[in-house]
Structures are given as structure tokens and as C-alpha cells.
Amino acid sequence: MSDSANTIDALQWENRRFPPSEEFKQQALVTGTFMYDDAAADDEGFWARQAADLLDWNSEWSTICEWNLPFAKWFVGGTLNVSYNCLDRHVLAGRGDKVAFHWEGEPGDSRTITYADLLAETQRFANVLKGLGVTTGDRVNIYLPMIPEAAVAMLACARIGAAHSVVFGGFSAHSLRDRINDAEAKVLITADGGYRRGEVFALKPVADEALADTPSITDVVVVRRGGNDVEMQDGRDHWYHDLMATADADCPAEPMDSEQLLFLLYTSGTTGKPKGIMHTSGGYLTQVAFTHKYVFDLHDDDVYWCTADVGWITGHSYIVYGPLANGATQVMYEGVPNFPGNDRFWAIIAKYGVTKFYTAPTAIRTFMKWGTQEPAKHDLSSLQVLGSVGEPINPEAWMWYHEHIGGGRCPIVDTWWQTETGGVMISPLPGATTTKPGSATFPLPGIGMEVVDENGARIERGGGYLTLTRPWPSMLRGIWGDPQRYAETYWGRFDGRYFAGDGAKLDDDGYLWLLGRVDDVMNVSGHRISTTEVESALVAHPSVAEAAVVGANDATTGQAIIAYVTLRGGATVDEQDLRQFVGEEIGHIAKPKTIYFTQELPKTRSGKIMRRLLRDVAEGRNLGDTSTLADANVVAELQRRAAETASED
Ligand code: 7RM
Question: SS3 helix, strand, coil % of the chain, rounded to 5?
Fold first, then answer.
């Protein structure tokens, strides 16, 4: 426990260690501490060297970083074209035939797209956008399934200096409408539909509903993918393939200012209206290229696969911009992990010989639920590095990933970052860092991070608030249309520091452990306990696949710990035994008062557990905003069971 005022108690200490193997180190881009030392000596100089080394610039910057808290500019005065960096330069260097995307449709169809193909398609589509009147500084909305045209659309915007705003294809008409209107987008790019769990889901009909109330949209471009019937409004709606057939093939990349707005990406705040997170060009591309290269130890012959959707920041930074800037070969997959069977991901890894694999803890815990026989059906020996992002990865989920997917030989990079940070901030470097299961380890070279207490004083051991102490190249530049909200939300809590809501603890070796959102921290008899630690203790039980923990009002202890638990396929466990197990793992104080066993947990559409809703359920309240929930049936069922328990009491 820490002595500092009102921080977060640290209960769990993990001692397993995994140093990189000699074999891995021999081929690794980074071993030892040179890169950390280099950055520590001069962080701005370090980033400037990365920018020069990893990207092609049309003209040099005059200032590396201009910092007027809370507003940063990077590589000020420099010009570059993001799409040129992701496409043209690879083709010009003779790598036009290199595969950019092995695209795999959910039904089993596939397309191979080389860098030359992607450049040709992007140039044409950039001309299409120009033809629709889109110019530098305009916003374009994108509402597409996971098809290569999503990357083409984004790169075409970047090519002409228009900002894209991608809305995840699972969002409703209302969400799409609000995001289009907030950005005042001119053009919407969508598809008839896409494939999900063996069926076509309609996009254009949903978009039509949004379009009834989006005055800024003049034109809609529709990609044919689902083959479902759609209505095309004369004069407004155009088929992608029709426009592409007549578009000019050449669209030279124009130099853009380093601080040119590259995209908006909306993220739902804790309350109220979604925030349009702003990212710009030179700094963003530098950090995503840098992190993609070194965190995944990228080599020319790698086949990299990130399972995120392009609708999330992970898809922007680690499917489109980072990997393409690095000229990587990727897999892009359209559908769900359980179509046609629970082994689809492992079949894809074997089919393409994937070497670097990046997914989320929610997926890993689901795979644990489905059982080890699924990955065991396929040859996963091509894998070399495994990544995790989106939530804390519980130590046991980490171990499962390590053994059953990584064959015990692949370093795991647990990458902490946010929509707002643009790129990875905290992660091991796989050839340099000894990992501990469940720890994101250390900030990357060039990143200033400190854990602080309630008063903003630095903590060297124990739990507190994760803060960033200086600007980084891919940091958000603001919230679209609301600079004051930006300043208050991110820079208002601790003087001079960026804080975006996560708790963390430092162990004796200085390793960092993410403790989840501080809004979720529970207060049990005066102990501030993180949900993450109790969840990890539950997941450490061999029968448990997944757990969500919340603090519910309790007359005796202030809050009581309520746990929702999903078991591994076929497993059973007694509630009392599981409570006892948690007590033994991390201490009596953290034993849940009640445990509910459930088939599913409520999650956001990007797979994060929604503890706020579980708190509503546990405290018998009406549910708050459920619009970001992936499956509303899950909480309805838990509410029914809570009501039952209450009537039994
Ligand atoms: C990339 C992404 C951001 C929030 C962040 C954390 C949580 C993300 C990790 C993590 C523990 C990780 N962007 N988070 N990665 N927590 N360990 N490796 O997810 O904007 O959608 O979410 O996600 O709470 O603040 S995001």
C-alpha cells in the first residue's frame, strides 16, 4: 500500500518474468537500453530524428515542438504528404509489388492488394473526391465495413488535405447523424452493406436515415459489398465503381503543413456529446510509424495482422497509417472471430503465415472461453510477437495468450494508449524488455509519464493516477469546435499534466500496472480498490474466463464488491470457493460480496467492459446511456437476475 493521500491501494503483485529469448534478441531491432538513453538525453531531438528517419518530408521544420500548454504543434513549418509517405515512396523505391493487404472477406472471398494497387486506387479516389468539390480543410465522413476501400478512402482524403471522420459501421443512424453534423462533413462514403456473422448487415439504409438530417452533406459515395438492395437518391448518391471508372488516374500528392488536420475521431465521453478528437499530420505519422516499427519489431518479410476495426483509433493508427508508412504487409479481415467456426482467427494466421498479431484482451478472454482445442487445430508457428490493446490484460489471460497462441516463444507487447494519445505510449519493446504478465511495463522512449497522488505529487511505488508530463508527437490537438472542453477534460485535473482517467501502480522494479478507469475504483471500508485487480484475481481461477467487478452502495462498508463472472467452456465453480480464492489471491478485503455467473458481460462496441451499467444494475437503478452497448440483451438479463435476488432477500 502507498502512504500517499487518497490514492489507489495496490493489492496484487506478480512475480513471473519473461525476458526476451537470445534467439529473439539476435534479430531484434532494439535490445538493451540505447534507445531509452538516447531519448532521455534529449526527447525532442529524439523525436526529430525519428521524424527524419521514418518519413519523407517536402520541406524541413523550423521548430520541433511548440508548446503553449495545452496546445502543441510538432515539426512546425515542415511539410509532407501522409498518403505519399504511406504509398508513393514505397512504389518509387521499387516495392510496388509488395502486398499491402491480404484482405479476407468473412464469407471466405479474398483480395490481394499490392502497394502499386493501393496507390492507383487512392489516386483515382482522390480525384473522385476532388470532382465532388472536396478541397483541403474539408471534412469527409466514412461509414464502411472492413474492406480495403476504407483504407483507400482515408488515404485519398489525406492525399488532398481533407480530414476524414470515420464512424464505426456498427453505430446507429443517430450516432452517424450527430457525428456528421458536428464535423459539418461535405461527403459521406459508405457501402450497401457488409458481412457479419454470416449475414449481410445494411449500411446504406442506416446512412439514409442519418442523411435525412445532415444539411452539410452534398454527395454520398456507395461501395458495393453486401449486394443488398439500396435506394440511390438522384444527384446525391453515386456508386463508387461508377465514379472510379471515369476518374483520372493521376493525382499527384501535394505537400501539406505538418499541422494539417488529418482526421477527427469521435469518442464518447463519460457524459454528454461525443468529442471529435483532432489529429494532425507530421507528428501523428511520426509516432505511429515509430511505435508500429519498434513495438512490433517490424521486419521486411513480416505479415502483420491487427484485428481492430478501422472505425476505432487502433484501426487508424495500426492498420492504416503506421503499417502503411512502414511499407508493411498486412492481413485485413472483414468479419467476426466465430464465423464459420470458433477457430477463424487461427485459420487466418495459418493461411497467411502471420508473424505479428495484435488483438484485444476481450478477444483473448473470449478465446479462453471457447477452449484451447480451437487454436490447437492450426499451425501457429509463424507467430513471433503478440500484441494486446484496449483494456488491462489480466495476468492469466496474458499467460493463456503466451502459451496457447504464442507457443511459449513470442514476446507479448501490452500497449497502453488512447484515442487521444494517437499512438502507443506505454509498452515493452520486445527485444529489450523483460515482461511481467499483466504489466504494460514502461513508457516508450521519448514519452514523459508519471504516476501521481490526489495532490499531483509523484509516486514512486504503489497506486495513483497516470499522467503524461510533456507533449508527444501524436497527441490530440484538441476537441473539434470546443477548445475549452479540451483544456478542462485533459489538462484541468493536475497542473501542467495530461490526465485522461486511468489509474496505475508502480511496483518495486518500476513496472507499470494499469488499474482501469479511476471512475471505476471502489471504496470498500475506506480501502480504494481497483476493479482490475479483483477481476484479475477472479480470472486467475482455472474455471474463470472473464470477470467484471463493480462497487455497489452498501450500508456497512460504503461500497460492496459485486462480481460478474463468465466461466471457461465446460467449467464449473462454487461461489463460496471463488470468493475464498480471491481472498487468498489478493486479500480478504477484496472478496466479492456477491458473484453472479453469466454467459456474457456488457461491452462497448469496441469490446471494453461497461462497468457503469453493471453498477446501475447492482444498485437497482434505471440504466443510463446504453447507446454504446454492443448487445442490450446482456444487461436486460442481468437486471432480471438482480431483481430476482432482491426479492429473495
Ligand atoms: C487504444 C484504445 C482508451 C482506454 C485507456 C485505458 C484502456 C487501452 C490499455 C488500456 C490497460 C492497456 N483507445 N486501455 N489500452 N488499459 N492496458 N494496454 O483502446 O480511446 O478506445 O481507449 O482504454 O483505460 O484510457 S481508446
Answer: 35, 25, 40
